[in-house]
Amino acid sequence: MRNDTAVALASLNNAFYAAHADSFASTRRSAWAGWVRCAQQLRACWGEGDPRLSGEVPLRVLDVACGTLRFERYLREAFPEADLRVTALDSCPQLVREDGLEGVAIEYHCIDIVQALLGQAAQTDAWLGVPAGAFDIVACFGFFHHVPGAANRDMLADALLRARAPKGALAVSLWRFMDDAGLAAKARIAHEQAQTALSLQGGSFDFADLEPGDWIIGWQGRPGAYRYCHSFDDGDVALLREHTARVQEVDVACFRADGRTHALNEYLMAYSATTLGKAMQS
């Protein structure tokens, strides 16, 4: 994918979230089932007596594309004794909701992560300011599908791994919406409509430059509400898993969860200890 195409797709998504932040946030309130399993694996790997879970030392969290901060609400419930210290990044401040997080230390930064990956100077400088090796949990949920281009998704994985503390964990979700017959049908219709609508608006990217698995999808049937999303398949997951394991000496385990099929998202968890892989298989 050309860089100018990726920049245009990022701009399309930014415009979508700026216009539809409230309606989007209203659908993002409850925790995902996959998060429950992530928390279970952390407990299994770290042990119940880990000082990060008991509150003896801070539990440092980096949430990339934090959205409404609902993951932080879940962490507060899952680890009630933990002293949560959260660094939250997102390009859309209209989404951020700190209600219900009293007592949780949250440092929010408005950073356009995709533009940073694409080399936009100001955003790249801000992204590079995230401290390396500093976080016990590095989370990135519901975002990889918004990063245009496989090479750019690899760069995001690299950056997330750099932020992970030596005994920390990385957890990401990969949306597989084309595996769901209903969502796939909607995606195909919206994609076809978007080709016409965006070309009439003088669209700034060539649909022919999209990669396999790339779609322009709609939102709640609203006219003109389009966003770029990549639907992951087995090949995508395998390549990203191999890349992650190659960048750092980590075990990378996978599982599927969420949605009516309990398989709408594929999760990757990376952890230094070999116990993670064993825990994920138990």
Automatic annotation (TrEMBL):
Q: From which organism does this entry originate?
A: Denitrobacterium detoxificans
One Pfam family this chain carries? Methyltransf_23
Q: Where are the transmembrane segments?
A: none
Q: Which SUPFAM superfamilies match?
A: S-adenosyl-L-methionine-dependent methyltransferases
Q: What Gene3D superfamilies does its record include?
A: Vaccinia Virus protein VP39
Cite the GO molecular-function annotations of the record: methyltransferase activity
| InterPro entries referenced in this protein's UniProt entry, alphabetically | SAM-dependent_MTases_sf
What top-level branch of life does the organism fall under? Bacteria
Which GO biological process annotations does it have?
methylation
Q: What is this protein called?
A: Methyltransferase domain-containing protein
What sections of the sequence does the record tag as coiled-coil? none
Instruction: For this UniProt record, give its keywords in alphabetical order, as a comma-separated list.
Output: Methyltransferase, Transferase
